[in-house]
Structures are given as C-alpha cells and as structure tokens.
Specification:
Blueprint (H helix, E strand, L loop, with lengths): L9 H18 L2 H9 L5 E2 H7 L5 H13 L3 E6 L5 E6 L1 H34 L1 H7 L9
Length: 142
Amino acid sequence: MSQGNTGVTSQAVLAQACPVREVLDRVAGKWSVLIIVAAAHGPIRFTELERSVEGISRRMLTLTLRNLERDGLVTRTVHPTVPPKVEYELTPVARELHATLLSLTDWAERHRVTIAESRAAYDAEHSPELEAVQPRPRESAA
C-alpha cells in the first residue's frame, strides 16, 4: 500500500452512497414527484390522483403509492363505507420534500432562459462536432 492511499476503497464509498442514491431515485422519480405535488393540498382519493397525474396507468399509480407509503411519505386511510373510501395524504416528511421540490421548480423557472441561451451558445460553438457525431438522415429511394 502506498503512503498516499488512505485505505478508503471505492466499494466503501459506494456502500455509503447507496442508501442516499436509493432514496433520491425513489423521491425524484417522475411519478413520485407528480403524486407528491398532486397530494400537497390535503387528502386525495385514488381516482382524483389518477385524473390529476396525466399519463400514469392505474397499475403504476398503485405501485408508486405503495412505495411512497412504504417509505413513510404517504399515509393511506381506508374509511369503512360501502364502497370503501380510500384517501392518501402526505406525511410531514413528504411535506418537507414538497417544499424542496417547489424551491427546485422556482430555481428552474428563474434560470430557464439562461440555460436555454447557454445551450444555444454551446451548440453554435460545437456545431461541427455535433454534426459529425449525429447520424445522417437516410435518403429516400423515391
């Protein structure tokens, strides 16, 4: 072992980072974010979530809600009525996450023009490089 080696292996770093990565993957997923935003205004029923989260399938909504409940971000309450009424509500931890998501959204809104300008400048500067990398369109046999 060289003197510059601290004994910290990449495996040790990954083992420590994995739980954080797992949490971030869960809460930053497309459907999780949309469900958290939709449920931010109070208890919401499954069908209301299904209508407000555009593009989500019933199965994906069920799976995502189950995972959010398992992670302690959503509570599921079944009311003893016929038919049963089921409501989902954000936990305090998820409300904190929602506030963080709002901050991120605000940041994106404030800087979207700057980012678009930077992309355009980068693309203009690297245009020959980008064209060389992109596949050429096929010519029609007409």
